């Protein structure tokens, strides 16, 4: 799959290879990026409940310490996460308009990357690999079935005014985000990749899993829809600038992603839960099969046909009283046996 040339995450120092986990066939060293990006700015909103799992606080980028030796897989993953996680959160927020979903999508993408780290480590564009996973998770249609997600971050009507906030920084371009959210998800993703991140058309088509003509049609439709609602964005250069600022600029209020260690730990915990669930399901299936084999009949027993009366045969009569002739015969037999000899035969002794 083609990947982005606009932002590359490079997670090794000059001349220092990346040590891969067992099972990787080769290693690939990547260069450090020349600049770091942070997530987008957004206007300060009313404080959310303390139990929420994301925060709205400023993030100050910390300079990573220079590595003293070959990077381990965990260190390389942490460098990749620290570089592109805030920017991916901003991009995902442009696609969804939900802070919670934006953070969750990026964390799930990095968890998936950690599970497939030997593949991601040798990919020519690790950032593009994670970005594609985050965008696909964020735009999944089944998120609409999660009412709690939509209750915790309700979309408010955007304002076109650029009044400064408490820190003096202009508010996030809420009008542009509102227009993007009116587009269908594939069109929204296409215009973000092409005009916001600077990918060329074949790379955009490859990342969105569409043909190049289909990607071009989506891009033209998205530009027309944005220009119809925001006439000042009819110029493609202005649209590119606004989208690039929204996707890669800086702002006072952003969604704070979790730490790289927490992302790795959650991914490993999720993988263990799936393994345990699969093991339990396999054990249940084997137990059910064993019980079925033990209790099932070992030979065929044909069913008994229901009874039916046989016609044409006279019914058997019941015993009735003796007739006079039978009574006379019985009396004659009794008189002959009682007086003339024994009633039963007996052997003679010799």
From TrEMBL:
* Alphabetized PANTHER family for the sequence: RNA POLYMERASE ECF-TYPE SIGMA FACTO (PTHR43133), RNA POLYMERASE SIGMA FACTOR HI_1459-RELATED (PTHR43133:SF8)
Q: Which Gene3D superfamilies match?
A: 1.10.1740.10, Winged helix-like DNA-binding domain superfamily/Winged helix DNA-binding domain
Organism source for this protein? Streptomyces acidicola
The Polar residues compositionally biased stretches are 19-37
Recite the lineage of the species: Bacteria, Bacillati, Actinomycetota, Actinomycetes, Kitasatosporales
Report which superkingdom the organism of origin falls in. Answer: Bacteria
Membrane-spanning residues: 274-293
Matching InterPro entries, A to Z?
RNA_pol_sigma-70-like, RNA_pol_sigma_r2, RNA_pol_sigma_r3/r4-like, WH-like_DNA-bd_sf
The protein depicted here goes by the name RNA polymerase subunit sigma-70
Coiled coil, from the record: none
Q: Which family is this protein grouped under?
A: Belongs to the sigma-70 factor family. ECF subfamily.
